Amino acid sequence: MGKTTACSYTPLLLLLLLLCWAQRSDHGRPSCDRCDPQLSCDCSHSGFTCVPVVTDLALTLDLSFNNITEVTERDLTGHRRLKALSLHGNRLAVIHPLGFDSLWSLETLDLSNNQLTALNHKWFRKLGALQKLNLLNNPYRSLASPSGFQGLVSLRRLLFGGPALEEIKRADLLGVTELEELAINANNLIRYESGALADMWPLGRVTLSLHRPFLTNKSLASAILADVSYPNTPMVLEDLNMNQKGSELPLKEAAKRRIRSLTFRNLTSSDEALIDFLKVMDGVPLSFFSCEGATLTGEGRLEPASKTDYKAIDEFFIRDLVVLDVYKFVSLLQLWFLLHYPRKVSVIKSQVFVMPCLTSHLLVNLQYLDLSDNLLTDMTLKETLCKGDSPLKDVRVLNFSGNALKSLSLMSHLVEKLPKLTHLDVSRNIFSSMPQSCSWPHTLRHLNISRAKLSAVTQCLPTTLEVLDLSNNDLKSFPLFLPALRELHLSGNKFLSLPSGWLFPNLQTLAIQSNTLNMFGQSDLQSYRRLQGLQAGQNKFVCSCGFVHFLQSVLGGGGGVQITDREESYICDSPLSLQGEPVSQVNLSIVQCHQVLVVSVSCGVALCVALLVWFLLWRFHAFWYLSMIWAWLKAKRSSQRRRQRDGEATEALLRFDAFVSYSERDAGWVENYLVPELERPRENRQDPMNSPQPLTLCLHKRDFVPGHWILDNIMSSIEQSRRTIFVLSENFVQSDWCRYELDFSHFWLFDGNAGEEAAILILLEPLSKDDIPKRFCKLRKLMSSTTYLEWPQEEERCGEFWESLHKALRVQGQDDG
Ligand SMILES: *[C@@H]1O[C@H](CO)[C@@H](O)[C@H](O)[C@H]1NC(C)=O
Ligand SMILES: *[C@@H]1O[C@H](CO)[C@@H](O)[C@H](O)[C@H]1NC(C)=O
Ligand SMILES: *[C@@H]1O[C@H](CO)[C@@H](O)[C@H](O)[C@H]1NC(C)=O
Ligand SMILES: *[C@@H]1O[C@H](CO)[C@@H](O)[C@H](O)[C@H]1NC(C)=O
Fold it and tell me: What's the helix, strand, coil split of the chain in %, to 5?
């Protein structure tokens, strides 16, 4: 029995296990939801060890700098919309052959800096949209065979190779024909099949790292250079050490093909190697020469190459040049044969502390000089610009950014006589104040004094400026009229409000991020007549209703001005409840925004409701009920008190035969008919024996103790009376409320004491039960249960009435007795 059960459950168990496993494999994966509204997901630097679960809608996915080791078949299924995927800097060693199969839209794939020991041609089969593929710095020794790139019909940028790459064969790159960028790390390449890279044309920028080949296998290096050198292909050569004799030889291939743009990156060279290089390139129409990150072991004695021809040279770009023997360096004067030609010279971050005035005299064609990030001071700049008499008459752009300049007035004086100067960048210097007046060339249009320590602006700024960058200073205000200004950068200062737009009638762009702006409004922006773009994020915004609504309308495209920085950078700083919330997402309620209105409206509503309630209470006699209950409670209490005081003596207390309750208007009848008839009854002539007894009546007018509370009076009167006679009439019911109210309270008192027989009703005029208002329910009840006496309209029947009344009083009196 047990065995069969187990057997029949086995498939179910298996299924469960399978389900669990499937779930685990999906749920075991961590997920990453750091996606911005543009569906760009940044899951980098998160320590993932496998590809995390990310929304299928993602357009870009950055998984760089994790510890991912594997891409399985299922990791990326569903990502049909993904355009860019980066797995840079992981420990990726295994990629399933079908791992990328669903990435139909992928345009950029970065697999650089991983542990891939072999490339698989199946990976890229389905990536027809791929434009950029980066396979750099993985430990594979060769590319995939057969060519893994054949299916990549859109490929325009290909980067591959690494320290382990040993060979490149012709078959490896089949199908790759037209590239905008090719980068190969072939520092340790041993075998190269000639022509392997020759099919690529047109070819954009080529970057080759050829450390070992240049040192040890010059023919290999030559073969590669021969295959990728074209006049219009900028060439970048990395990691070369040219200290050896003859290490320049491979460059002959490039020279033969008359390349025009050459860049060395991470170069080590001596004077001799440079001279050889200059000789090899002699006569080549090289127009751009650049050196980024070079170590020069020599002293700059390049005179031996002075016969060479570099007439075509247009630009020198040198950055991060380290001269090992900087004290022995003989200055750039040795390069006189090169300096006549270029229009652009940049020597950046190369510890230049002076460029002698004499060198300036050589740079006859110079239009653009960039000496940023060096060691220039006021004094050495004076020398560089020949004390304000600089021969650089053609220069248009001067960049002294990132030096140690202190005096703006000296600066202005030194450039004053440069008749064509339009751009001056003196950002990242240590100017701490602005003189009251300066003398700039009239041509100056762009001025950059950002990242200084200026705390105020003065008339020093020329009115010719079109672009002014004063970001990252200590400015609080800007009281200066600049009629030509188109662009003003004031980010990173201490502005509390926007400067007045009337000062800048032509301003089109204003950047004022990271200040202490509280808010701005329609009128502020309207003062800028031409403003198109505004960047004002990262300020300390006070999210008042007016500001929030205004900014939301501007962000929504309302108003002529466009917000050109990120919407999310507009964040509320106060009030506290909104701190940290993006202004675009703040939802202020009407209550918060129109407090006065809301208060007055709610007061009005409350008043109306109160009036309505009061009216309803009045309409339904609630006050009457309330006062009745109150009166009744009070009366009951005092009656109790009285009774306790007087003990339970009853008969003795009965001073009256009847208490008469009547309306003031019926007083005539009561006093003229009722009282005489009952207190002094006429003899009954027919039956003297049956003559009515005289009765004592209690009338409030006559018998109430003066000075006592009326209710108490009534209470005690009733208690001291055997009966209560109610004289009912229209008057009683309708007109004489007060009186009736009091009487009503007595109906309550009857409860449980005398009972209903204690009351005698006299109807002075015909009155139906329905004429009595509903709320006098006790009276209505009495009228239906007790027979009442009707005062006859005809004189003859009066005797009959009196007789009945007497009888009623007597009978009941005897009953009581
Ligand atoms: C990756 O793993 C290594 C060792 O397993 C660890 O040292 C490193 O911090 C991890 N990297 C990240 C980004 O988590
Ligand atoms: C620069 O090149 C040398 C070889 O000449 C190499 O060892 C070094 O790693 C390279 N440096 C960089 C930052 O690539
Ligand atoms: C000046 O150099 C700095 C740093 O190299 C650069 O950021 C800036 O754009 C340059 N300015 C001009 C006007 O080229
Ligand atoms: C001004 O200089 C800074 C720092 O060099 C640079 O970042 C900025 O782009 C420059 N401004 C303009 C308008 O070029």
Answer: 35, 15, 50
pLDDT digits (tens, 9 = 90+) for 535-592: 999 999 999 988 999 999 998 887 789 999 998 899 999 889 999 999 999 888 888 8
Q: Stretch 466-482: mean pLDDT, rounded?
A: 97
Q: Ligand 3 centre from 812 Cα, in Å?
A: 121
CB of 265 shorter than 6 A to ligand 4: no
Which residues partner with 331 through β-bridges? none
pLDDT above 70 covers what percent of the chain? 88
Match 């790292």 to its residue by tokens. Answer: 209
Predicted confidence at residue 811, as pLDDT, reads 62
Non-local CB neighbours of 100 within 8 Å, separated by 6+ positions: 71, 76, 106, 109, 123, 124, 126, 127
Query: For ligand 4, what atom is nearest to the CA of residue 487?
Result: 13
The whole-number pLDDT of residue 9 equals: 52
DSSP secondary structure of 251-298: HHHHHHTT-SEEEEEEEEE-HHHHHHHHHHTTT----EEEEEEEEE-S
Please work out whether the CB of residue 401 comes within 6 Å of at least one atom of ligand 3: yes
* Calculated CA dihedral for residues 406, 412, 414, 416, nearest 10 degrees: 170
pLDDT > 90: percent of the chain = 60
- The ligand 4 atom at the shortest distance from the C-alpha of residue 372 is 5
Tell me, yes or no, if the pTM score tops 0.90: no
Query: Which pLDDT belongs to residue 746?
Result: 57
Question: How far is the C-alpha of 390 from the C-alpha of 409, rounded, in Å?
Answer: 17
Ligand 4 near 469 CB (within 6 A): yes
Q: Which domains does the chain have, with CATH numbers?
A: 622-816 (3.40.50.10140)
Atom 13 in ligand 4: residue holding the nearest Cα: 469
Q: What is the mean pLDDT of residues 333-361?
A: 91
* Ligand approaching nearest to the C-alpha of 68: 1
Q: How far is the CA of 285 from the centre of ligand 3 (A)?
A: 27
Number of the ligand 3 atom closest to the C-alpha atom of 402: 4
